[in-house]
Design brief:
5-stranded antiparallel beta sheet, T2SSM_b, alpha+beta, 5 helices
Length: 243
């Protein structure tokens, strides 16, 4: 006798069939086929985006190359390192540059004069660049001091002023001078190009007569009412720290 089915039984059977098919998909198809293919699809999309970025960079190569050449040309026109091949020659160049800056700020040394220029050895160890330093002492007016320091730090090649000390003082070497000014001392520092031969030589080494003569060049002897041999001002000098 055939079994009679009702619409409700048919719907239950269909629901059970769908449940079995979904379970079979989740257990057999999804983890072994769907998940790997979706991962591959995501990787393809990521690679396509990367290829697009690389292609954009390749297309910009001529523009970037031209810009790089402009920057390199600008750096060559305004070098940051000292152009000399040795530390001795660089120290002599620094000495000449100080004298030029002083003469430019005060023609004829009427308002500013160089008292001392002494090379300083580079005692650093394991430094990336060779430093050339010059101990400088000036006797200048306030405006002349500002002009000299500005000229030294803004010119080319690049120089640095460190350990700057200023003392206010009274002096009058001639009737044309105002009689007031600053006693200025500082270290003027530059750096040699990497890989320079004789990089370890100290700026004050013996053997380069021209560099030593230029680096130790002194200004005319100061008047007796300035600073005594020990470096102290006379009794009638008013000396205060410049702010």
């Amino acid at each position: 006798m055939p079994v009679q089915t009702t619409p409700r039984d048919r719907w239950l059977a269909l629901a059970l069939l769908l449940a079995v098919l979904a379970l079979a998909y989740l257990l057999l198809v999804h983890p072994f086929f769907t998940v790997p293919w979706r991962a591959i699809d995501q990787e393809i999309v990521a690679l396509q985006e990367r290829q697009h970025r690389v292609q954009v960079q390749i297309d910009q190569r001529p523009e970037v190359s031209a810009r790089l050449q402009q920057v390199q040309q600008a750096l060559r026109e305004r070098p940051g390192f000292l152009p000399e091949a040795t530390a001795e020659a660089a120290a002599a160049a620094l000495s000449s540059r100080v004298q030029d800056a002083v003469l430019s700020a005060s023609p004829g040394n009427r308002g500013c004069v160089v008292s001392n220029r002494t090379p300083m050895p580079d005692n650093r160890t394991e430094a990336s660049y060779v430093r050339v330093a010059l101990q400088v002492r000036l006797r200048c007016g306030v405006d002349e001091t500002a002009s000299v320091l500005h000229a030294l730090e803004t010119g080319a090649p690049r120089l640095f002023v460190e350990n700057l000390n200023m003392l206010a003082q009274r002096f009058q070497q001639s009737t044309e001078e105002a009689g007031t000014g600053l006693d200025v001392s500082f270290e003027l520092i530059g750096y040699l190009q990497p890989g320079i031969a004789d990089a370890g030589a100290a700026p004050g080494s013996v053997g380069d007569e021209e560099a030593a003569a230029a680096a130790t060049e002194m200004a005319p002897a100061p008047a007796t009412d300035e600073v005594d041999a020990a470096g102290s001002p006379p009794a009638d000098v008013e000396q205060t720290d410049a702010e």
